[in-house]
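anyone seen this seq b4? input:
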Amino acid sequence: MALVGIVLVSHSDKLASGLRDLLRQVATDEVRVEPAAGTEDGDLGTSSALIEAAVARADSGAGVVVLADLGSAVLTARTVLEDLPAGPVLVDAPFVEGAVAAAVLASTGADLATVADAAREARDVPKF
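predicted toks r here
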């Protein structure tokens, strides 16, 4: 069964890779979690090419949720997704909490809309 994939768009490869490692603890191995972070030469920033490649790797046929950390990462992700065929969904959600919620729901085989909603709803979950 194909599961919803997740793309983590961040200015920092360390941040996105660390979050991917965390998600691997809460999601099944079948959930494809792909960082798209930093620039091609390893600097801080965002890259359209890295985002597009990560979306392709994350897509197993059930759709892809894209989460971004900050301002220009959101803008770059929006630009990339406008040029791709319909499918990947950029979700306005907290980066860490939204990604955890998305990964957990994706692990259950939930559809793209349900996974995206779970990420969005993480905004309203109190920490204490």
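The beta strands are 5-10, 33-37, 64-68, 89-90. The chain has a mean pLDDT of 95. kinda curious what u guys think
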